[in-house]
Specification:
By secondary structure, the protein is mainly alpha-helical. The protein has one domain. The protein is built from three helices and no strands. The longest helix is centred in the last third of the chain and has 25 residues.
Length: 86
């Protein structure tokens, strides 16, 4: 089951980054992972993204897509409410 696989991977990655499974913890986690992927430093022991390990970041990408989609939906709803469409 895909959901379980992603949940298990995210739990491991959250623990590795020392982030809790909460809203604040997920925000911190995404910020840290983005930094790891964007700011390469050869002496850093944390996992960095390469074309050869993209699969390691599949669950993080799915989480990021979910968060972005929820933010867009929330903003679209707020705009419809402001325009008295709902």
């Amino acid at each position: 089951m895909e959901d379980v696989r992603h949940a298990d991977k995210l739990k491991v990655q959250l623990e590795r980054e020392k982030c809790e499974a909460s809203v604040h913890g997920l925000q911190e986690f995404l910020f840290q992972v983005r930094g790891n992927l964007h700011h390469f430093y050869s002496k850093n022991t944390k996992t960095h993204g390469t074309p050869f390990n993209q699969g390691d970041f599949e669950s993080v990408a799915l989480l990021t897509m979910f968060v972005a989609s929820a933010a867009i939906d929330h903003r679209a709803y707020a705009l419809r409410v402001a325009q008295n469409e709902i």
